[in-house]
Amino acid sequence: MSAAFILRSVPGRVRAFLSAFLLVSATSAFVAAPVLAREVEPIRLLFVGDLMHHQAQERLAREHRDGLLAGYADRWKFVAPMVSGADIAMANLETAVTGGSASGFPVFNAPVDFVRAAAATGFDVLSFANNHSMDKGFSGFSATLENIKASGLHAAGDGQPLYINVRGRTIGVISFTEFVNAGSRFRVPAGKHGPYIVRHDDAPGRAALLQTISAMRGRADVVIVFVHWGVEYRYRPAIWAKAWAVEMADAGADLVVGHHPHTVGPSEWVAGTGGRRAFVAYSLGNFSSGMTRDSTPYGYALEVAVGADGSKIPTLRPVWTYRDGANGQWRTYRTVPAAELEADCAEFRTAEVPMRRTGAATHECGRLRGAVKRLP
């Protein structure tokens, strides 16, 4: 049994002691163990785009033999290992969740079991700063954040920085939207609890956001900006978005994670004028929806490995929400890793059990390939 295996199989504090002991044994000399202010371990962060709630998704969930919660969770069972395996997994909740009557586009409202299913899948943080934040008014916004918290999740989106401690690290999150459907110039009145709105052409608002990011830099090891921006169905970010990302990097952001277009966008490392670098994913697209237009079923899960030395390695993992399942299970809307669907597609003509990894209908192969071809 190797020393590395031994170290991986014991708790963190014991691991630190054994590491020092093995170092002494290897050098045959006494080495004083360093005094650490705190134990720091590598962590894995995961971000996905939009959790949409269309009426077709609700109808399917209600048909599940074990009830509504199980029905929603069943939509995400193939991606649950990826989500639950992260130390922190975060998504954009693009629907109100008030506990009242459910509704679909254009005024979204989902049952509370929708966020409970997200928690059961392994999500840790849901952001409710997006264009649907005001679909049910100020009371609906506050009720949604309370229902997120009551489901055992962290809620973001009201302008208050969120801090989460994990494996000796402090992760800071600020979430905002560029707009809401209540009006192009809508503002949250003083004294009201609502979504954090910052428009790219609002200089004072941008300055205040950058000040918040800078203040978070002094408290958090990793600073994340989770932003609802861009233009629907447009793949490429606007020039102003790229410039804004540089400003946020300068202010102290490590990651800028975008959503809203319902399609994936490019990603890149950007450097601020002061030399600070941030990784920017301009749009992760949809993670779960009843949308079938063009490339809307195709999204990204952004995984970021944060090393003990503070290094950050981002990886984009494509996901696909397939419309139809095998054996005539039409309109199932399950989200799967795109790599698993591609593997199914590669072997389904020779396999004893076609599409055994995902349960998708075989014509989803053509839909996936067509969607990928449309990407720039």
Please give a structural write-up.
Helix content is 31%, strand content 22%. The model is unreliable at 1-36 (pLDDT under 50). 45% of the residues are buried. With 376 residues, it is of the alpha/beta class. A hairpin with a 5-residue loop joins strand 12 (298-306) and strand 13. The chain folds into two domains: 1-36, no CATH class; 43-322, Metallo-dependent phosphatases (Purple Acid Phosphatase, chain A, domain 2, 4-Layer Sandwich). It is globular, with a radius of gyration of 22 Å.
Report the sheet with the most strands, covering strand number, pairing sense and barrel closure: 8 strands, mixed
Strand fraction band? 15-25%
List the domain count as a whole number: 2
The tally of beta strands, per DSSP, is: 14
What is the rounded Rg? 22 Å
Count of helical stretches: 11
Question: Keywords, please?
Answer:
376 residues; alpha/beta; Purple Acid Phosphatase, chain A, domain 2; eight-stranded mixed beta sheet; six-stranded mixed beta sheet; 11 helices; 14 strands; 22% strand; disordered N terminus
